[in-house]
Every structure is written in structure tokens, then in C-alpha cells.
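Weekly structure sync, notes
Attendees: PL (lead), two postdocs, one rotation student
Agenda item 3: pending single-chain targets
PL asked that the sequence for the first pending target be pasted directly into the notes so everyone works from the same version. It is reproduced below exactly as submitted, 550 residues in total.
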Amino acid sequence: MQKLLYTLIFVLLCLPAFSQKINKYWVEFKDKDNSPYCTCRPAEFLSARALERRARASIPIVENDLPVSPNYLRQLTAKGVQIHNTSHWLNAAAVMADSTSAKSLETLAFVKTVRYLGPHLKYRNQPNRPVKKRTPLITDPAIQGDDISIWGYAGEQNQLLGIPVLQLAGHRGAGIWVAVMDGGFANADTIPMFDSIGLQGRLIPGWDFVERDAGVFEAAQHGTSVLSVMASNLPKYFVGTAPDATYFLIKTEDTGGEYPIEEINWIAGAEWADSIGIDIINASLGYTSFNDNTLSHTYPELNGRTAIGSRGASIAATKGMIICNSAGNEGGGAWHYMGVPADATGILAVGAVSADGKRASFSSFGPTSDGRIKPELVAPGDNIVVAGNVGIALGLASGTSLASPMLAGALASLWSAFPKKTASEVLDAVFSSADQAERPDNGRGYGLPDMTEAWIQLGEMSIGNGGLFSFDRTGNELIFSFSTDVYYPGDLVELRNDLGQKIAGILAVFVQNKISTLTIRGLVEVPPGHYQIVLSNKQGVKRLGTAIWR
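Predicted structure, written out during the meeting:
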């Protein structure tokens, strides 16, 4: 009996220790003293590509680039807490701890604040599976019919952003690195939409900042859909806005619940992307309400300086990258504002438009609480064609979660035409090309940009007496784009041989100083050779360019 009593006492004494609930906390530090890192040795924490991007934009290496002091992290773990993620931009760490251990961190001289982030959620996904072997399609699918563009089912949505002309000129995102932050990319390692990027080594599993491992081809179809509108490359079936870019997949969204830790994961993902040399980040994520409503954001907090995620995103925008983040889908509700970190300064909060270019009813409004216009730009986001997660299945989806990657991919294709330009130079042209650049509002921001117009402004071609000309042969058709500052009714665009004889032609129905895409069909009997494309009108004949028919 006495032995049994001792056993019961032992169990009762130990029970409180075992029942302590583990939560997540945000620990901010006062400084970066005693750090082994120095801004004079940036190669220790930034890749050569990241340094080159900053040098191109004259961006200095500053203290917030330095990693968190390893000594401070060691002292945290000595208190019995576990490090989840760190942020050198905000000089802080997210930790897992019971309330007693978390409280003890406040006694450390270098700790500035300790903030509760919510409970530690045990992840509900199955264990990570190995990356599967990709089996390419034997026969590429294609839409059946006579009037099919090389973009297939993505043609109409790509056209809204002025993508076709840019891509016909050969600018499809090559050399641009895009980080995609989401909740998972289910089956992106197997579905045929990504055969090109997968087999060419341009689909790169980055890191899972939720589970702290390399498993990203799991958890959510959302990221797969987001990736598909940028990276898909099945000609005449489904081609995205930047099929030649390189994509790094990062998991930051915890699908087990909504808590502020996901904002810290967002920052950790963005810092990792910056450090390896990413050019463009797309994050189709946003946070306003949490499972614990005492942690939810209020409108006064949406000033880019208060929410943890917005503070980090604002710094991300200073590092020479372009940051696209979905504005949010609350436009039809009582709370109709953007989420965090879309309120951040310097990033692009992207709203959604329908096929007619009007704001989609669900797309969130601005302004920020400090009066800044949000969203900055809009992109197609209503009834968008996306990849399924099996085979070549496609589906329709809506949301600013799709508008943001549509724009991110378009920016990648544009930037690939001018790889020496800085993010600011590219964005200046994009904003100037938007359809309400002179009259921005808090529904559509500066409007829907036109990548062809931005391409012209950046210097690829100029609109003048010679016009703008770009073409591509597709099957037995010649697809070309043309713009001129002089237009006469009845103008004809003609294909002529070396003797000046007309082979085919089309009535040039276009708007002065605007880009029009025209197609000459029925060229099945045209033999290989060089052909001149001319504009014929009552003023005479003007050569536009040369088509090489192979």
C-alpha cells in the first residue's frame, strides 16, 4: 500500500509538467551585438546572385541583412524553448514553448518583447512522400479547332495583360527566378503542365517553413493552381504567363489553422528567397481574422507598420525584388479591406478583374489606414483557367490568389527582356502602362497593366513612323502585332515575296498608337523563304519587317 501511495504521489507531482501546453511566441531582440557576421562580409549570408541584384540597384548591405545573433538563439534554447523560425529583417525569433518558459525569456537582457502567437498545431498532413519520377506525355494535348492560339485555354486571360506580343517576341521569363509562397503544391512534381520546368531543372523544391523540412509537393492544391497560371507550358492547350522562368516552391501557409505564426513564416520564406537571389516573389496569401479572434487585425493596424507580416514585407520590398501579394477576396462583405501583408509599403497588392476588365466583385478594397492606395494593380482573377492535380485536367477558379501570379508571371516575362533593368525601372514602365495610371482609385488601383506597352517604354521597340512589329509563325498562319502613329481607313497588311508580289493580306483594323494582334491564315502552300511584311495604304507601301518561313 505504501509503495502504491509513493507511485501516486510521483505521478501527481509530475503531471503539471507534462500537461503544460506548448504555444508559439514571437521574441524580438534589442540589438545584434556580439554577432559573428558583418556587413563588410555579405557573401557569408547572401548568395552571389543576391549581391548582384542589389549592386545593380545600388542597394547597400545594412544591419537588418545580418542574421540573428547565434549567441542569442543559444540562450533562448537554454531556457527550454525550441526555435521555429528566425527573422534577421525584424531581429526576432518565433519559438515553441510553454507559458512558463516563454515568460522566463523576458528576463534576458537582450530580449525586447515576447508576444503570444497562438497554440502550436500538430500538423495534420501525412508524412512527407518522396518526390515522384516525372513521366512526360507521349503526345501533347491540344484544343481542336481552327482558331486556336498557342496559349490554348490560357489565351484570353493572358491577352488581358498584353502577354502574347511579348512572348511572340521571345520573352517568356527565361533567366528570371520566381519564388512562390503558398500552402503546398500537391502533385506539381508529376502533372504534365510542369513537364518543361521539371525536366529542365527549373522547378525547385525550396523549403517548408511550417514543418521545417523540404516537403512541398503536399498539403494543398492551391499552390499548384497558383503555379499553373505562370509556369504551365503545353502549347495550344495551356501556356502560362512565364513558362520559361525558374520557380522555387516555398511552403509558408499552415493549412491546420489560421494564426499569426503564418505571417512569420511568410517573412522567413521571403528572407530565404532574397538570400538565394530571387527576382520576383508571389504570395497568394493574406491574414486578417484568426482562430483566436483576440489576435485578429483591425483596420487601424493596416498601415504597413504594425502587423508583423506587413513590417517584414515592407523590408522585403527594399531589397531589389518585386513582391506580388494577393489583395484579398473580401470586397463583397462588411469587411472589404485588404489583408496582411497586402497593406505593406513597396509591394504590389494585386486585385482581380473579370474578363471585361472591371473589378471582380470579391476583390478587396483599399485604402490602407494611413491613406495609401490599395491595390496597386489588378490582373485577371475571375473564372481563370488553372491546372487540376491529376494529368492534364483543367478547371476554373476565381480569386485574387490567381490575379497575383498572373501578374507575377507577366512581370517575369517582361523583366526577361531587360535583365539588366532594376525592379524599380520595370515597375515604372508597368505602372505607366496601366489603364488608369492617371486616375488611380482604391478598387482597381492604377489599373490593368499592358506588358506590351511596358515593353515598348522600356526600349525594346518604339512607336514612330516605322511602327512596332512582332510576328510568329504558328502552323499555317502568321501571327503578328503592329502599332503605328499614322492610320488610314482601308490600310492593308500584306505578305510579299522577294519580287514584291503579294502572297496574302489582311485588312489592318487597329487603333492608332495601340497594339493590335492580327493573323494571316491560309498559308499552307507558301514555300520556305524570306518574305516582306508591308503596310499598304493610299500614301504608298511601308515595310514593317521580314518573316522567315521555314
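Discussion points:
- The chain has three domains: 22-119, 155-458, 468-549.
- The longest helix spans residues 2-19.
Action: rotation student to compare against the earlier draft before next sync.
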